[in-house]
Structures are given as structure tokens and as C-alpha cells.
Design brief:
The complex is a heterodimer. By secondary structure, chain A is of the alpha+beta class. Chain A has a domain at about 10-85: Ribosomal protein S16 (S16 Ribosomal Protein, Chain: A). Chain A contains 3 helices and 5 strands. In chain A, strands 4-3-2-1-5 form a 5-stranded mixed β-sheet. In chain B, strand 3 (about 155) and strand 4 (about 160-165) form a beta hairpin. Chain B has 3 domains: about 40-65 and about 90-120 and about 180-260, no CATH class; about 125-165, no CATH class; about 260-375, no CATH class. Chain B is elongated, with a radius of gyration of 27 Å. In chain B, helix 13 runs parallel beside helix 17. Chain B has 17 helices and 4 strands. Chain B is mainly alpha-helical. Chain B has a 4-stranded antiparallel β-sheet, covered by helices on one side. The chains are: A alpha+beta, B mainly alpha. Chains A and B meet through strand 4, helix 1 and helix 3 of A and strand 2, strand 3 and helix 7 of B. Strand 4 of chain A pairs parallel with strand 2 of chain B, so a sheet runs across the interface. Chain B: Keywords: Ribonucleoprotein, Ribosomal protein. Chain B: One of its GO terms (cellular component) is mitochondrial small ribosomal subunit.
């Protein structure tokens, strides 16, 4: 089966609100996302207006997550007043194209906190073991 | 190889092979040390200068039978039958000009440039992002119509630093999103495994190695320069220059040898096969690249005389007076080179002496023939 063209096959209405969002394209247990622009009130299984990039959330053998962004077209759609969904805004923030999204900071902070808690738990267990022996 | 020996030693207790011997045998790999273009001087301006390009192309000695040979029938399910045409002189000249143009394209030399520098360009540091993810994020700008070398490719490290990617990562991602035909994402085994590479060199598959290296690597990559350097040195030590003549790799080979001042073996081969004009061109090339030849003006003047003459694919059987004049000048120029610059003086002098004797006979023959025809 040939892939649909990157220019998209969805119907286009000039005045309807657009949004740039992740659209899941992988299969079961293997997520893969297209970054696409589509109408805001359209569900993700419907044809999109244009594909703007891709995002592979599973790290490859070099422990890298690959993101492709067609920055020229993203700028065009942003200029046309397209909205950005939060996951896409996070990716654009990490890439240095937009300021870093607050949710990225939140995730980082929460991850650091859980790590700290896990460490503290481990140390407490060790201390218990040494005390009992 | 060492494995087989070890098996032999185990099966046959009489055949005593000590471990030391096995080690020596298994270590008998390539002992060639590759030399890269990583010095202070940049070879690119010299290589691309018009006079050096002309010299290198002339030294390639293109034989159209070899340039246009059928190499594979890949992509052709039916071989075409050749067509024969009657042409007028003007049409024939047109066809020859077309063929020359096509040969020029086929013989375009892979560029020689300085080795690339690491890209170490930190765009921003954000310690508040530490712990966001354990993996790196790599962002590639896939905007239409941007050349591979100008594409934005950046990475966000787990420690929150945003930086430009280094060359190897850039090459990998360019190949992921914009694949080049024939280039592999991982290094082919023939380059990665020294044993396989060595076996290719032993079988004298130099052209195959160099062609594949051209596709797989960029010319400023360290791996490319390592592979080509080892291949050139192997070829040089075996004096198999004929295998690369009339291919696009002969020019870079000559440039490499001259740049590293190790072209005396090539010079010897040229003298032994009687190609004194090319030997004189080689002297001029050495003057252009190194500037250490004694009689530089003579060599430069000779180049202007040699270039308009047709390429000699085999030894001439008749000589005109102009030919004799040019060739004697070449011999004088080479003599001076041998005395002042050569590292293989005695061998080259011997070869030159042999050439002179042969040439004297040829001169007498052609003068005698002219006399017999009543032209002298």
C-alpha cells in the first residue's frame, strides 16, 4: 500500500481552526507519530491537511529518539493561526524552535523527584538491613 | 588462518606449532599506516587549481576502450545491439565531441579536501531539563530543497544541553531521511573488518574498493581518507598503476603520492614503460605541489609543449623531428630531477638508460625510413 502524499488528502476549509498535532501511525505496541496539521474539530483517524514531520518515541540502538520537522511549513501554518497541541509544543520547545514548554519542566522536575524518592527508599532499606544484622 | 593452524596443531601432535608462531602468523595483517590530509596545509586549493587538474587528467592517460567498457548489466534486462551509421566528417566530429564530454563526466575525479573538524557548538544549556528523558532527542529540519550539508540537525541531551550534531550523526540522519542510492546506514563489512578489506586488496580489487568508498563516505571524512590512503599505498607498493589508469581514481592517486613525496615508484614505472612525457608532467606536478624541483622553469615550459600533443596509449613506432625534440628535452629534465630529488636514483637511472638505448634505435629507424622515402 502506498503512503498518502505529505500534502495530505483531507478537505480544507480556509476559515476553520487548524491544529498541529501528533497522529498515531504505528501498530500495536509500536507507537509512531506523524506531526500533521488538521482541522481542530476533526478526529485523528480522518485524512489530514498536511504532514509536517514525524516523531519516533521508541529510542533506537544509539538511545536516540528521532524527530523530523518541516520548519518552513510549520512556520507557514503558525502564521495562518494554527493551534499547537501540547505534545507537539513540547517537541518544538526541546528543539529550540519555540521556548521550552512548561510541561517539559514539570515532567523533568517530577522525574527528578521520583528518582530522589527511590534513592531515599533504597538507602532506608540498606540501613534497616545493616541494623538487623 | 590462526584457527586452522591451531586445529592442525591439535590434530597432529608431531606437527609442533608453538603459540608464538601462531601469533606471528595471525598478526600478519596490513602494516600500512594511513596518512590523511590533516596537516597544516589544505590540499583543496592546489587540487582544484586548473593547471594541476590538467596535469592529473593527462596523467590518467584515458583509453576510451576502458573508459566506456561495459561494467555491469544491472538495470538493463535486454542488452542493446550496437548501431552502425554512415556519417559525414562533420557529423563524426560532433559524435567524437559528445564522446569526449561523456568521458570527461565519467573521469571526474573525487575531490581531495582537508579532513573535517568536529562540530562542537552548544546552542543552549538548560539544567532545569535534567531528568526529562534518559534518551537523546534528535531534531532534523526536513524543509524541502535544503542541501544535506546545510540542513539543521540538533540534539537535546539528557542533561538539557541543546547542541549541533557532529558529522557522523548528521550523516546517519541525512541517510535516514534523504537516502543516497548505494550508501549504507551502517559501515559495510568490507571497510569495517580489516581482514575482509585486506583480502580485497590482496585480490587487487582496487577500483571496486575506491568506487565503493566514494559512495559510502564523504571526501572529508577520516574513514574515507584512511581507506583510500591504505589502498593507494598497497597499490603503490605492488606497482599496479595500470589497474587504475583510465579511471577517475588515478588523478587522486597521483596527487596523494606527490603530496606525500612518495611518487618515485610511479616515476620508475613511467620510465620503464617509456612514457617520458608523462614523467616530465609528473616532475611539473611535483613542482606545483611541493615547489622543490631544481629546474622548475624548464618543467613548466615542457608542460606547455606536451599538452597539445595527442595522448600516447602505446609506444610510438615512427617519430617526427618535433617528437624527438620534445622527448630529448623531457629526458634532460628527468635526469636533473633524478640527480637532485629522487629517492630511487640508481633504479631510475638504469631505466632511463634503457629508454635512451631503445629510443636511439627508434630515431635511427625513423630517420632511415624518411631517407628511403626521399623526404629527408
Amino acid at each position: 500500500m502506498s503512503l498518502p502524499p505529505a500534502s495530505g488528502t483531507g478537505r480544507y476549509f480556509a476559515k476553520a481552526a487548524k491544529s498541529i498535532r501528533l497522529i498515531r501511525q504505528g501498530c500495536t505496541n509500536r507507537p509512531f507519530f506523524h506531526i500533521s496539521v488538521t482541522h481542530r474539530r476533526r478526529i485523528n483517524s480522518q485524512p489530514v491537511i498536511e504532514q509536517l514531520g514525524s516523531y519516533d518515541p521508541m529510542p533506537n540502538i544509539n538511545n536516540e529518539k528521532l524527530v523530523a520537522l518541516n520548519l518552513e511549513r510549520i512556520k507557514y501554518w503558525l502564521g495562518n493561526g494554527a493551534h499547537i497541541s501540547t505534545p507537539v509544543a513540547e517537541l518544538l520547545g526541546l528543539s529550540g524552535f519555540l521556548p521550552i514548554h512548561p510541561r517539559s519542566y514539570m515532567t523533568a522536575w517530577r522525574n527528578r523527584r521520583t528518582e530522589r524518592e527511590n534513592l531515599a527508599k533504597l538507602e532506608a532499606e540498606k540501613a534497616k538491613e545493616t541494623a538487623s544484622t | 588462518m590462526s584457527l586452522i593452524l591451531r586445529k592442525l596443531a591439535r590434530n597432529n601432535p608431531r606437527n609442533i606449532v608453538t603459540d608464538a608462531q601462531i601469533l606471528v602468523l595471525s598478526c600478519r595483517k596490513l602494516s600500512i599506516v594511513p596518512s590523511l590530509y590533516d596537516g597544516e596545509q589544505d590540499p583543496a586549493p592546489k587540487f582544484f587549481s586548473p593547471n594541476v587538474q590538467v596535469l592529473l587528467k593527462r596523467l590518467t592517460r584515458p583509453d576510451f576502450n576502458k573508459v566506456f567498457r561495459k561494467r555491469t548489466n544491472h538495470g538493463l534486462n535486454i542488452l542493446k545491439t550496437p548501431t552502425y551509421k554512415f556519417l559525414t566528417n562533420e557529423e563524426l566530429e560532433e559524435e567524437i565531441a559528445k564522446a569526449n564530454e561523456k568521458a570527461d563526466r565519467l573521469l571526474q575525479m573525487p575531490p581531495i579536501v582537508k579532513i573535517q573538524k568536529h562540530i562542537d557548538d552548544v546552542l543552549s544549556k538548560d539544567p532545569a531539563l535534567v531528568g526529562y528523558d534518559t534518551a537523546k532527542y534528535i531534531f532534523t529540519d526536513i524543509t524541502f530543497g535544503v542541501a544535506n550539508e546545510h540542513r539543521f540537525i540538533v540534539e537535546r541531551d539528557p542533561d538539557g544541553v541543546l547542541r549541533s550534531c557532529d558529522h557522523d550523526v548528521r550523516k546517519r540522519l541525512n541517510q535516514v531521511y534523504f537516502p543516497l542510492h548505494g550508501r549504507r546506514l551502517r559501515e559495510p563489512v568490507m571497510f569495517a573488518d580489516p581482514e575482509k578489506f585486506n583480502s580485497l586488496l590482496e585480490r587487487e580489487q582496487y577500483e571496486f574498493v575506491l568506487d565503493r568508498a566514494c559512495v559510502q563516505y564523504e571526501p572529508d571524512e577520516p574513514s574515507y581518507q584512511r581507506v583510500t590512503s591504505i589502498t593507494y599505498q598497497h597499490l603503490d607498493s605492488n606497482s599496479k598503476y595500470e589497474l587504475l589508469r583510465s579511471t577517475r581514481h588515478f588523478g587522486p592517486l597521483v596527487f596523494y603520492l606527490t603530496w606525500h613525496k612518495s611518487m618515485d615508484n610511479l616515476m620508475l614505472e613511467l620510465l620503464q614503460t617509456g612514457a617520458v612525457r608523462e614523467a616530465a608532467l609528473l616532475v611539473a606536478l611535483r613542482q606545483d605541489l611541493q615547489g622543490d624541483v631544481v629546474n622548475s622553469e624548464v618543467a613548466q615550459g615542457l608542460v606547455q609543449q606536451i599538452l597539445p600533443t595527442p595522448i600516447q596509449l602505446k609506444k610510438p613506432d615512427r617519430l617526427t623531428e618535433e617528437d624527438i625534440q620534445i622527448d630529448t628535452k623531457c629526458v634532460e629534465c628527468i635526469e636533473k630531477y633524478i640527480v637532485s630529488n629522487s629517492a630511487m636514483k640508481s633504479q631510475q637511472e638504469l631505466a632511463l638508460q634503457g629508454f635512451r638505448e631503445n629510443y636511439q634505435q627508434l630515431i635511427e629507424l625513423s630517420r632511415g625510413l624518411q631517407k628511403a622515402h626521399g623526404n629527408a
